[in-house]
Design goal:
By secondary structure, this protein is α+β, with helices and mostly antiparallel strands. It has helices at 2-20, 110-119, 159-165; strands at residues 26-40, 45-58, 64-75, 79-85, 92-94, 98-109, 125-138, 144-158. The chain has one domain (24-170): Sandwich (Immunoglobulin-like), CATH 2.60.40. It is built from three helices and eight strands. Strands 3, 4, 5, 7 and 8 form a five-stranded antiparallel beta sheet that branches. A three-stranded antiparallel beta sheet has the order 1-2-6.
Length: 173
């Protein structure tokens, strides 16, 4: 009985020590890309592929997996677009002590891209705000999950980026 009790205390102490050494990953906006026009047959629509590129720093001594990112990108402080990124299981693994680039795809309707171009006529940049949550798993061995890790990032894209992907045929003359 003494050995069983001692191993429980040892396990409990080890888990508390591990919890004290866990650090949240840091997420920083790297840039935004507009990757061209997409056409979908069903439901029929034409859109622009916006990719939000973030740098995720894992300060821990163990790998961490991103299992999902949910939220929205708000363009020009008034046009919200949903983010729902789910990498294939078991997630996107971030090596210990390193920074990993993560690409978050966002679908932008073509009519919104055209509206942004019109509004940004007098400004060289269009602001955006990424707000949401990230679900992570700490360590492939222990599989400690933390859901709803908050993310709040701000950035800009240039008017030229948007103009480069919107086909001229859709722009008013």
């Amino acid at each position: 009985m003494g050995v069983r009790c001692s191993s429980r205390w040892l396990l409990a102490f080890s888990l508390l020590a591990l919890a004290g050494c866990v650090h949240d990953p840091t997420v920083q906006l790297n840039h935004a890309e507009l990757n061209g026009v997409q056409v979908a047959v069903f439901p029929p629509r034409v859109g622009v592929q916006l990719t939000i590129v973030v740098d995720v720093r894992n300060p821990n001594s163990f790998d961490v997996a991103v299992r999902g990112v949910r939220g929205q990108t708000i363009l020009a402080e008034r046009y919200p677009l949903p983010i729902d990124y789910r990498p294939p299981p078991p997630g996107l693994w971030l090596p210990a002590g390193q920074t990993t680039q993560m690409r978050l795809p966002v679908d932008m309707p073509l009519d919104l891209a055209i509206a942004l171009l019109r509004e940004a006529f007098a400004s060289p940049v269009i602001g955006f705000h990424v707000v949401g949550t990230v679900d992570v798993t700490g360590s492939s061995t222990f599989k400690v999950n933390r859901d709803n890790f908050p993310v709040d990032l701000r950035g800009t894209m240039t008017r030229q980026q948007v103009a480069a992907v919107v086909p001229a045929v859709f722009l008013p003359h």
